[in-house]
């Protein structure tokens, strides 16, 4: 094989950059988190939804908005053989609103409360806690402008994070106003930045033209001083938006949520109105040299998006609020508390099969165990009794079921108590009753 071909082969054996397999304990950790979070959402009256991984590109162009990093730089868009332009979903809110409008959910009792989880895709620079395929758990409440729903989303996200073991959860919150008050604020912000246009970075100069609110998202150290002096959106809120923001904060206080107003929080996406928020958790990180740093991890965010429905082509505005938690960062946090997923049961039985005849009876015995909800494990490729007993011993499994040539012919199995080493021969058709008596 020439060098070129062998390189090509190696490349084909690697998952794409920023995307990875979830295997074994890691898969269980994600699955356990999803199940627990879904359970919390269910208790609060949310219903599940699963959207397609691909949506029409137009959905995100209209919903997330031109001039945002997601639309301009990060979308995986492909042209199908039929000529459609489809995008691997970079976020869940626009797809949920699309589903709400497509299925006429306006005619259901309002609000409609939905949760979802799964992979999302952004062509970003991979680094620790940032992937090109990442997982989110999302909550959306559609069909109401009431401030209690903004607070419910924030409260539920913090409950889910607390249940997942995360500590010192804190929320940054801001209000960017509605169509009435955002215009004057945007103008004021643009005028302020225009005065400083020589001192800001090239990205900011571009934002000034395309999406001035995003100037406040800039992380460039050279722009921070100018950002600190920028006018604040809360100073421009109309009386209705002011009242809404006040009520959201009152609910948060009642719920005991630790929050602070961050006037630079605008969350670049076009669809937000009024409340925007981000959720953090403080954690102690051990560095490579053994020293420790306290880090405030961004674990989720969201906001109200009262104008999204119309910008997607809906006939009427649908007031709504929601957001997403970044599951990869939660699972990778040193504070993450593992919850076993429902399908993972500690095995009670190690099943040993010893001959070809025994292996033919294997499924009969496994079915008896499954129907009686007895979790079991086995090593199908091993033939020696002592090797398999050794594995069972090491795993600390309380019972083994042994099926050899003789047992296979007599339709029996041997059940061995691994602690007392006592053994019983049991007819396969009596195994169910026998298992019920075991502790
Ligand atoms: P966003 O949808 O950008 O508001 O993100 C919500 C949360 O998802 C963030 O706080 C992160 O925890 C997580 N997140 C966003 N982008 C990524 C990514 N590329 N990789 C891993 N997690 C991400």
What is shown here, in short?
The chain has 439 residues and is an alpha+beta fold. Helices cover 38% and strands 23% of the residues.
Q: What is the beta-strand fraction?
A: 15-25%
Q: Average pLDDT across residues?
A: 92
| Share of helix, binned | 25-40%
CATH topology of the largest domain: BirA Bifunctional Protein, domain 2
Strand order of the largest sheet: 1-5-6-11-10-9-7-8
C-alpha-based Rg, rounded: 28 Å
Number of H/I helices: 16
How would you summarize the topology of this molecule?
Layout: H1 3-12, H2 24-43, E1 47-48, E2 54-56, H3 57-63, H4 69-74, E3 76-79, E4 85-88, H5 93-102, E5 112-121, E6 133-142, H6 147-163, E7 169-175, H7 179-195, H8 202-210, H9 224-228, H10 239-254, E8 259-261, E9 273-286, E10 292-304, H11 308-311, E11 320-326, H12 327-332, E12 349-353, H13 356-371, E13 376-378, H14 385-395, E14 399-403, H15 405-410, E15 412-417, E16 423-427, H16 431-437
Parallel strand pairs: 1-5, 7-8, 12-13, 12-14
Antiparallel strand pairs: 2-4, 3-4, 5-6, 6-11, 7-9, 9-10, 10-11, 14-15, 15-16
Helix pairs in contact: 2-6, 6-10
């Amino acid at each position: 094989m020439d060098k070129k071909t062998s390189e090509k082969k190696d490349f084909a054996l690697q998952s794409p950059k920023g995307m990875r397999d979830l295997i074994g304990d890691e898969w269980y950790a994600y699955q356990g988190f999803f199940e627990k979070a879904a359970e919390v959402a269910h208790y609060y009256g949310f219903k599940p939804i699963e959207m397609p991984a691909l949506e029409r590109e137009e959905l995100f162009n209209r919903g997330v908005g031109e001039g945002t990093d997601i639309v301009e730089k990060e979308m995986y868009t492909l042209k199908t053989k039929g000529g459609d332009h489809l995008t691997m979903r970079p976020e869940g809110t626009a797809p949920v609103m699309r589903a709400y409008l497509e299925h006429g959910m306006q005619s259901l009792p309002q609000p409609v409360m939905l949760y979802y989880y799964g992979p999302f895709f952004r062509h970003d620079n991979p680094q620790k806690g940032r992937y090109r395929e990442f997982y989110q758990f999302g909550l959306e409440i559609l069909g109401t402008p009431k401030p209690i729903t903004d607070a419910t989303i924030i409260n539920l996200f913090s409950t889910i994070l607390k249940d997942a073991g995360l500590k010192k959860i804190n929320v940054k919150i801001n209000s960017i106003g509605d169509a009435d008050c955002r215009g004057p604020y945007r103008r004021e912000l643009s005028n302020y930045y225009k005065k400083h246009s020589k001192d800001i970075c090239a990205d900011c100069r571009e934002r000034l033209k395309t999406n001035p609110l995003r100037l406040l998202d800039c992380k460039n150290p050279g722009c921070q001083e100018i950002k600190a002096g920028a006018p604040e959106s809360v100073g421009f809120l109309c009386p209705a938006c002011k009242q809404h923001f006040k009520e959201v904060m009152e609910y948060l206080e009642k719920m005991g949520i630790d929050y602070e107003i961050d006037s630079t929080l605008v969350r670049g996406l076009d669809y937000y109105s009024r409340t925007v928020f981000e959720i953090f958790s403080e954690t102690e990180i051990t560095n490579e040299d053994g020293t420790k740093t306290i880090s405030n991890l961004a674990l989720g965010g969201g906001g109200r998006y009262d104008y999204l429905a119309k910008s997607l082509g809906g006939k009427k505005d649908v007031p709504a609020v929601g957001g997403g938690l970044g599951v990869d960062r939660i699972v990778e946090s040193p504070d993450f508390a593992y919850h076993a997923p429902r399908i993972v049961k500690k095995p009670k039985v190690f099943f040993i099969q010893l001959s070809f005849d025994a292996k033919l009876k294997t499924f009969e015995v496994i079915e008896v165990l499954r129907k009686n909800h007895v979790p079991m494990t086995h090593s199908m490729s091993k033939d020696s009794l002592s090797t398999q007993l050794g594995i069972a011993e090491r795993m600390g499994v309380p019972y083994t079921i042994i099926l050899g040539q003789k047992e296979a012919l007599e339709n029996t199995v041997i059940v061995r108590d691994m602690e007392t080493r006592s053994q019983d021969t049991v007819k396969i058709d009596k195994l169910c009753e026998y298992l019920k008596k075991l502790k």
